[in-house]
Amino acid sequence: DDDDDDDVNGGGGGDDDDDVDRNNQSDHSGGNNEGAKAGGRPASGNNRIQFGKALASAEPEALQKSRRRAKALSNLIELDAVTINLFDLSPMTEYDMYIRSFGSSNTSQTGIQCTVDEMDKSIQSDKIKTHTRWTQHPPDDIRGYGKDSSSADLISDNAEAMERIGLEQKTNYKHYISFLRSAGFVMSAILDENLSLYSTNRKKRASTLNFTQETIRLSATIPLFAGRRVVASTFCKADDFVAMTCFSPLPTARSTDSIRSKGLACIWNLNTPSFPQHVLVSESNPTCCCFAPNGANLAFAGTDTGTVIVWDTKESSSMHKRSKIGGIEYVIRQPSYVTDAFDQKNTHKAPIVSIGAIRSLGNNTLGGTSGSVSASGFQIGTLDSYGAFSTWTVVQLPSEQDLSQDLRLYPGSTIKVAFSSALNLALTERLNHINLETYFHSCQPSIPNRVFLATNAGKIIHAVRFGERVAPRSYSLLTGGDCAFMLDFSPWNESYFLAGCSRGNVLLFNADDRECIENFKIPTSSDIGGQEPSVTWVQWSCHRPAVFFAVDTANTLHIWDLLENISEPVLSETCPKYMQVDCLTQQH
Q: Half-sphere exposure of 286 toward its Cβ, with a 13 Å CA cutoff?
């Protein structure tokens, strides 16, 4: 009660003081106003009410009042103390401390003890089925394994057989056959690769020729090749031991085999030269051939009817017929795709004399050994004897696509050859006034758009597949009536190429210069009456930059080594008459 009275009295005293202060301020304000009025001047800013000072004087009084209130309430409020044990650990005895430090150093658990009624425990699982089987190595019999003849074992075998029958009924045979085809191709590829381990054991023959120590003879004595000769050959760039050969037509009067009226080509693995790896047939006779740029599973051929043919060796052998010729059974592979049914405007009207894959500057894997497929595919170029150059795009179609309307596709095949572009040199180069004939084409490896063609017009034509014309338009031979039969770019410097001519010359050109850089003359052969033989094949060496080879019509192989002798060949070897040289190709 005393405190309340003090609060009341104190509050009243404070109010009286405030009133006195306000009176004093009003007196001063009045005096100032009177002075201002007396002097005739306006009142100054000091006559305004100061709220800041009033607020500052009120804050200490409010703080003192809160303190007094807190002091009065502290006597009425009490706080309880609560104690909680977060962790309780009894102290270790001396024995426990000793055992902890030294007791476990030389002790081991040897057994446990439990009550008798807890020896067996029941579980909720099926009973495990067991079967008795035995085996022995080395075996005593032809099998080397067996089983018990107990009745329980026989019953379990019967149950397994019934389960197997039920499983076979649920098997998806479509997926099963697809798996077998893929697995079979992989296993075949692995077996072919393993053959390279035994390549040193293949039959080799000592050679009578000076330019080689030994030869590998393909099995040409089997009845399949009777009456035929090789007209074209090539090696696969992705696998040096895989080669392809095309054969000449077979006289029907000398053979009774089922493919005597068909064209024939074979794919060989040089590790097993005694038997062809694949036998390929066609309705037309192949005249030239090539492989896909990145694999050996796609083989192409140009024919004497102007048809382009492709074989896919990854196809299952069950898709093709088997035929027995001379007591030997072969899988006769039909073409996967032919261009016979194309519009006459987009097909060749003369025999195809040259075919080759066009090198792509990008990466594509169609036809690769790994089996992967590029969506864009790749392109091949073909040239016929009338000077028509065509470009074809090779693509792989999805297996689930309906291809029944495409009559050029073999049933079950997925490889398609689509026409891309054509270039008629007789019209483009204004050579229609002469009987133009072309023999070979080659694309510059570094610039695949540029095409070089060997002709009988006394020059080599330089054309482009698309875009503007480039210089020079042609490359001059030594004489106007000279013919160029073969072209080959150097693998060491792709700006230089060789040309084999009809006058017995091998000319060296730079792709940017119209005139030849060097003329290499082959020796005159006495077998043809001292006449100048024509150079039918010419190739750079894949292993030595200064070495190249040439074959002439006198069945002679010439080898030049420019570091040793630039004026004449370092070796000229005439092959025996029974060994007619029809083509020349190298392992890469």
A: 31
Are the CB atoms for 228 and 282 separated by under 8 Å?
no
Amino acid at 170: K
326 pLDDT above the threshold of 80? no
Q: Is the previous residue joined to 293 through a cis bond, with omega within 30 degrees of 0?
A: no
For residue 396, which phi and psi values (nearest 5 degrees)? -110, 125
pLDDT of 205 > 80? The answer is no
Rounded to whole angstroms, how far apart are CA atoms 338 and 312?
A: 12
b/e per residue 312-351 (b: at least 16 CB within 10 A): bbbbeeebbeebebeeeebebbbbbbbbbebeeeebbebb
Q: Note whether 334 and 410 are within 8 A (CB).
A: yes
On whether the CB atoms of residues 573 and 210 are closer than 8 A, the answer is yes
Question: What distances in angstroms separate CA 92 from CA 96, 106, 406, 456, one per listed residue?
Answer: 6, 22, 93, 111
Tokens 């107990």: give the residue: 150
Position 1 confidence tier, pLDDT thresholds 50, 70, 90: very low
* The pTM of the whole model exceeds 0.85: no
The amino acid at 543: H
d(CA 23, CA 2): 31
Helices 2-39 and 51-74, axial angle in degrees (round to 10): 180
The pair phi, psi for residue 427, each rounded to 5°, is -90, -35
Amino acid at residue number 206: A
- Let me know if 129 is exposed, middle or buried by CB neighbors in 10 A (0-12, 13-18, 19+): exposed
The one-letter code for the residue type at 541 is: S
Phi, psi of 173 (to 5 degrees): -70, -25
Alpha carbon of 489 to those of 400, 442, 499, 511, 561: distances in Å?
Answer: 42, 8, 9, 10, 17
Q: Is residue 378 within 8 Å of 360, Cβ to Cβ? A: yes
Amino acid at 313: T
| Exposed/middle/buried for residue 508 (C-beta within 10 Å: 0-12, 13-18, 19+) | middle
DSSP three-state, residue 562? coil
- CA separation for the pair 95, 233 (Å, rounded): 95
The C-alpha atoms of residue 454 and residue 500 are separated, in whole angstroms, by 9
- Distance of alpha carbon 568 from alpha carbon 521, whole angstroms: 7
What's the mean pLDDT in 358-372? Answer: 53
CA distances from 344 to 340, 349, 428, 574 (A): 9, 8, 20, 44
At residue 277, does pLDDT exceed 60? yes
User: pLDDT-derived band of residue 289, with 50, 70 and 90 as boundaries?
Assistant: very high
pLDDT of residue 561: 92
pLDDT at 381: 92
> For the residues 564-588, what does the mean pLDDT come to?
77
> How many residues make up the chain in this entry?
588
41 vs 525, higher pLDDT: 525
Sheet of 496-501: strands edge to edge?
484-489, 496-501, 505-510, 518-521
Which two three-digit tokens encode residue 139? Answer: 């075996």
Helix (H, G, I), strand (E, B) or coil at 19: helix
Cβ–Cβ < 8 Å for 354, 363: no
**Which residue(s) pair with 505 in the sheet?**
521
